[in-house]
Amino acid sequence: MLLVLFSAVLLGVFTYSVWIWSYFIRRGIKGPRGFPGIGMLMHNIDHENPPFLKYQKWTKEYGPVYGFTEGPQQTMVISDPELVNEIFNKQFDNFYGRKLRPIIGDPEKDKRINMFAAQGKRWKRLRTLSSPSFSNNSLKKVKSTVQECGSEILWNIEKKVANGEEIDMLLFYQEYTLGVISRIALGQSESKMFKNPLLPKVKAIFNGSFHLFLLTGIFPPLAHFIRRMSKSLPADFVPAFKIFDLIENAVETRISQRETDAKNGMEPGEPQDFIDLFLDARTDVDFFGEKNEDFSKAAVVKVNRELTFDEVIGQCFVFLAAGFDTTALSLSYSTFLLATHPEVQKKLQEEVDRECPDPEISFDQLSKLKFMECVMKEALRLYPLGTTANTRKCMRETTISGVTFDEGMNIQVDTWTLHHNPKIWGDDVEDFKPERWENSACEHLEHNGSYIPFGSGPRQCIGMRLAQMEQKILLAQSLKEYSFRTTKNTQIPLKLVGKLTLSPESVIGKLEPRKDIL
What we know:
Distance between the termini: 88 Å
Helix content: 40-55%
CATH architecture: Orthogonal Bundle
Radius of gyration: 24 Å
Strand order of the largest sheet: 1-2-7-4
Largest sheet: 4 strands, mixed
Keywords: Heme, Iron, Metal-binding, Monooxygenase, Oxidoreductase
Number of strands: 11
């Protein structure tokens, strides 16, 4: 009897797995298939063979719209600019969610869900509350901190240069971006550059977690159990959740400090970092009754500017993770491209010398570095690193240009194909040509779904301007004194890895003191 029951359960599970796996086959939609129960999940969490490059290969084989399954989830991959623009901008109300791995949590119910993962009214509340942190006034306030971090990195570089050593610029840029985000987001009062215990833990978020993605991708209910048990699980098994613990300690310490100050009659001043900003909005109200059925980006509703304690922690986590990795990668790609294109580097140095003649670079001078903006844009066109964020979730069945997206379906943009499409960019699409951005004809490409390094529409990366400021400051500081050069150990072409972001394995080079300024 037990054997019969067990066999029936196995048959039921297998039948269900095949039914889910055959979703796109039954709809007549092409795409890679994988295996029942798993689909293409294994392919899409392979660090050594990035999924983002596989999408490009599959797009060539199956066309600009195709589908695959990942465990029980269905994903449609698109690389048509018009579809991207419709989904990310024009029909945002039907696609306001984001594709999430189960381990991230339920965007409707999880108490520590952050702005990246939240959707609907909860997302709008978190976004509205966080936006002032990235205004011009806020960026001006943190500019000096960013520049201090840049100066410290250059001091460490100077020691390497004096010894004639090569430098893996990716590692140095990671120290820089973690130094910046630790100080402006987490209230770190002094530099811990090159001795920050947080660095290996944050890197583990992007380099590890294969087992978590696989287990919870196949069996999503496991995600809830792992999240609840995270405090008692080994750090190597749940690296991201240990970061939550560190942030929780930092937030509790700040709450205690503020309570002590209040007892001593000290008035709270302006927020010094993101923790202060979020704690100023802290409330004990439970927002989990927010319903999204009638969500609309254009709806005129009063947005409650309050956060729960768990949301404070979630917000700090996402700013730490996003602020660390993507900016370091963007700097790495820009440096590699400048080192391998000395004529472009010389033109950029001339602009830096002209617009930033003083030892300290002012906020207004940064806005005059127009060619540097072109260099950064072109680097992100050639190496779109954060394509994991270029996803949406269909919230209600929608048909666009004859393509039907079912409710609950994930949409993934093949950003690499989009940014390397010769029909959009011309026959020189594979060339590093920053001057293409000096042509006004390229301006519309940033608004029609053809160029999305920071996403597009209402959910475009909120930290974009901070990231650009960090890059400009450090590139300008570096190029005033040095030229980037390749060595025999520079990977040409770069070997790309990563499952959450697209990263070079290394960016080894040397910095040569400029002879023209001696």
